[in-house]
Design brief:
With 329 residues, this protein is mainly alpha-helical.
Length: 329
């Protein structure tokens, strides 16, 4: 049994011409099982997003102006963007994909990825803004303001790498992601003395997740792209101009089911389309429960910033059922 996609003629590079070009993905191929797992995880992620919309009582289309509605919209951008990329996996600079369709082209996939990643960065910015407002922390507010601009720069580096087939752009891109989340981690560490109980435990989990992400970036992801750059890139030593690259990403995609071509992509894609999406979903929950945070403030921090929580705009956006349960407790 195999998975097939309608075939069409594909423009191949000299390097790609020697690759196997079978259009069917047999279940005996480990890539088919990996793709099936990505699909399953994506379906679960989408189901969880719809469950959150229902549980939080914030239809995103009707309440985008509210904090929780905005977070759900941004989360949707990331959840559905990652789901699309799971259905049609591709590696940008190499121009390789699993299925032969224009939707597998790099210009489509990279555009979807850019929107999704900006949504994810915006979620972090909104979350840090909420925490900084509640605690009156300039450090956290500064982290909130820096998050999105840094990721915009990272996306520009990503597009440079994709258009020119220069992996140095990918190495710089992921280094900027590391910097952005290092700053976010510093902001969360700054909040540890501000909270007790469950709030502090949640911060510790978030910090641990950021540390793990930074370790992965600096020991696996960035070195991988840097080594590819040193070895000559996707097509030997030839680099494309941005104009050549734009035409290339719009017209050339190479279907390959060779595990050797995908082995370096499987790890980061698997983590990206699962754990990163779960983090996006968790940010929605944490933001919606912002009205509970005053209950976990330490006495010292509450005394220093007694009016910060009162002025925080997040209370109104939290679900009413949450407020009632809090009062009942």
């Amino acid at each position: 049994m195999s998975l097939e996609w309608p075939a069409r003629p594909v423009l191949l590079s000299s390097r790609a011409a020697s690759r196997p070009s079978s259009r069917s993905l047999a279940w005996s191929n480990p890539l088919a099982w990996w793709w099936g797992l990505l699909m399953l995880v994506s379906l679960v992620n989408i189901a969880v997003w719809f469950a959150l919309v229902r549980a939080l009582g914030e239809p995103p289309a009707a309440s985008a102006a509210s904090g929780t509605g905005l977070m759900l919209l941004l989360c949707a951008g990331y959840v559905f963007g990652c789901a699309f990329r799971s259905v049609l996996p591709r590696a940008d600079v190499q121009r390789i994909c699993l299925f032969d369709t224009f939707l597998s082209s790099v210009v489509v996939g990279r555009s979807v990825a850019t929107v999704a990643e900006l949504c994810f960065a915006a979620q972090w910015a909104v979350m840090l803004q909420q925490l900084g407002t509640i605690t009156g922390s300039d450090t956290v507010l500064a982290a909130a303001w820096l998050m999105l601009p840094l990721i915009v720069i990272a996306e520009c580096c990503s597009w440079y790498a994709v258009l020119t087939t220069n992996y140095l752009g990918n190495a710089i891109e992921n280094s900027i992601w590391a910097l952005a989340f290092f700053i976010a981690g510093v902001g969360l560490c700054r909040l540890l003395p501000e909270f007790d109980g469950l709030a502090r435990a949640t911060l510790i989990v978030g910090i641990a997740g950021i540390v793990a992400y930074l370790v992965f970036l600096m020991t696996v992801d960035v070195p991988m792209y840097f080594n590819r750059w040193r070895s000559g890139g996707a097509d030997g030593n030839r680099k494309l101009s941005p104009r050549e690259g734009f035409r290339d990403v719009s017209t050339r995609w190479v279907v390959t089911h060779d595990l050797a071509e995908w082995k370096d992509e499987i790890t980061w894609m698997s983590l990206y389309f699962s754990i990163a999406v779960w983090a996006s979903l968790a940010l929605c929950v944490c933001y919606a429960l912002g009205n509970r945070l005053p209950h976990y403030r330490t006495e010292a921090s509450a005394a220093i910033y007694p009016s910060s929580t009162a002025s925080a705009p997040v209370t109104a956006s939290a679900p009413s059922i949450t407020v009632r349960s809090s009062e009942g407790a």
